[in-house]
């Protein structure tokens, strides 16, 4: 149930939409088969999705409390400032620099190497001070 939506309302709307499209909804974990708008099914879906939403909220709350506890102990979270992560462009870095020095636009470089997005290539170049 927790995978069908972020909250109870989304789950109910999705299942109602599927039922209107004559789709049988099967929730295997609870052994529940929903074919039509039945008040009992609606109640079960609502209760199950509420429990799923509650569980997500509890997990989120525990995570936030744990992170705050670590911060209070003086532990620095996250990666170090200035850390450069691996990129999909690393393997073609020399070729990208060569193409940019020839005056090709980011879009043409993307077309030439065969993958990527203009914005991500721009960020890659900027963070590494390549050109």
Could you please describe the fold and organization of this structure?
By secondary structure, this protein is mainly alpha-helical. Helix content is 57%, strand content 5%. The chain has helices at residues 8-20, 39-72, 93-101, 106-113, 118-128; strands spanning 25-27, 32-34. The protein has a two-stranded antiparallel sheet. Helix 1 (8-20) runs antiparallel to helix 2. It is flat, with a radius of gyration of 25 Å. The two termini are 49 Å apart. 8% of the residues are buried.
Roughly how many Å is the radius of gyration? 25 Å
Mean pLDDT across all amino acids: 90
Strand content: under 5%
Tell me the strand order in the biggest sheet.
1-2
Write down the overall geometry: flat
- Ends apart, CA distance between termini: 49 Å
Helix fraction bin: 55-70%
- Uncertain runs: none
Q: What order do the helices and strands follow?
A: HEEHHHH
Number of beta-strand segments: 2
Largest sheet: 2 strands, antiparallel
- Helix vs. strand class: mainly alpha
List the helices and strands and how they pair.
Elements: H1 8-20, E1 25-27, E2 32-34, H2 39-72, H3 93-101, H4 106-113, H5 118-128
Antiparallel strand pairs: 1-2
């Amino acid at each position: 149930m927790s995978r069908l939506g972020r909250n109870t309302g989304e789950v109910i709307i999705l299942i109602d939409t599927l039922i209107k499209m004559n789709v049988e909804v099967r929730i295997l974990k609870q052994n529940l088969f929903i074919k039509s708008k039945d008040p009992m099914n609606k109640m079960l879906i609502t209760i199950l999705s509420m429990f799923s939403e509650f569980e997500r909220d509890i997990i989120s709350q525990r995570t936030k409390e744990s992170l705050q506890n670590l911060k209070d102990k003086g532990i620095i979270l996250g990666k170090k400032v200035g850390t450069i992560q691996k990129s999909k462009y690393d393997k073609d870095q020399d070729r990208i620099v060569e193409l940019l020095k020839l005056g090709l636009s980011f879009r043409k470089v993307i077309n030439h190497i065969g993958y990527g997005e203009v914005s991500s290539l721009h960020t890659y170049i900027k963070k590494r001070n390549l050109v």
